[in-house]
Specification:
The chain has 214 residues and is α/β, with parallel strands linked by helices. The protein has helices at 53-65, 112-121, 139-148, 159-168, 187-198, 206-213, and strands at residues 7-11, 27-29, 32-39, 42-48, 71-79, 89-97, 107-109, 125-131, 153-156, 173-182. The chain has one domain (7-213): Rossmann fold. It is 29% helix and 30% strand. A 5-stranded mixed beta barrel has the order 5-9-8-6-10, surrounded by 4 helices. Helix 3 links the parallel strand 8 (125-131) and strand 9. The longest helix has 13 residues, at 53-65.
Length: 214
């Protein structure tokens, strides 16, 4: 029986992959570092994209060109509402490109079945991922985003781009991030303090998730 194609994983920073890529030699494709991983005997193709929507879209495209049958996003985020604190896991229901000038095609829904499977493995809040090209570090911007999207919502810089690439290819995708800071004043200091401890928390759930998806 032919081997099942791998699931692709996108992380902006190497620390957000945690131990997932340990023992796997990186190979470069179109400027993206790829790691051929096996978790619980199942194939996983991980990419370190770099920060931002352009880098994330490039990595997602490379993963699909390499045969990935769907995409997962892991990493960190900034909480935009009081109910979210550092260490909380948040599953993406919808990713929204907040700084895109046009209104069409700014948002994309994650795959319900994949999100449900991930929730079973790693329970957490669900909400919108608001993707932008720059961090949310001013009180005004934080309040503006939080008021525009009611309920749990977080700020990140890659998810909407990855989701858009997967959706355009007709493939499933899902995203899980851990809150490292409350977006706004003190964001950078809080991120630096929490990243080393929390950065790989979402990726650490992947070995069990991949078994469930298979």
């Amino acid at each position: 029986m032919p081997a099942k194609p791998p699931i692709g994983v996108v992380a902006a920073l190497s620390g957000e992959l945690g131990s997932l890529a340990e023992g796997a030699a990186p190979r470069e494709r179109a400027g993206v570092n790829l790691f051929d991983c096996r978790t619980k005997g199942l194939p996983l193709l991980a990419a370190i994209s770099g920060v931002g929507k352009v880098a994330a879209a490039r990595a997602a495209g490379v993963l699909l060109a390499e045969g990935a049958r769907g995409l997962l996003v892991v990493g960190t985020c900034g909480g935009l509402v009081r109910s979210l604190s550092p260490g909380d896991l948040v599953h993406c229901t919808r990713a929204f490109q907040t700084d895109l000038a046009v209104r069409e095609e700014r948002q994309v829904e994650s795959h319900p079945a994949w999100r449900e499977a991930w929730q079973a493995v790693a329970p957490g809040a669900e909400g919108w991922f608001l993707t932008a090209d720059r961090p949310v570090i001013t009180p005004w911007r934080r309040l503006r985003l939080a008021r525009a999207f009611r309920g749990p919502c977080v700020a990140d810089m890659e998810t909407a781009a990855v989701g858009a690439v997967a959706a355009a290819a007709g493939l499933p995708w899902a995203a899980l991030r851990v809150v490292t800071d409350r977006a706004g004043p003190g964001t950078a200091a809080s991120f630096r303090k929490n990243y080393r401890v929390l950065g790989s928390k979402a990726a650490d759930t992947l070995p069990v998730l991949i078994q469930r998806l298979d």
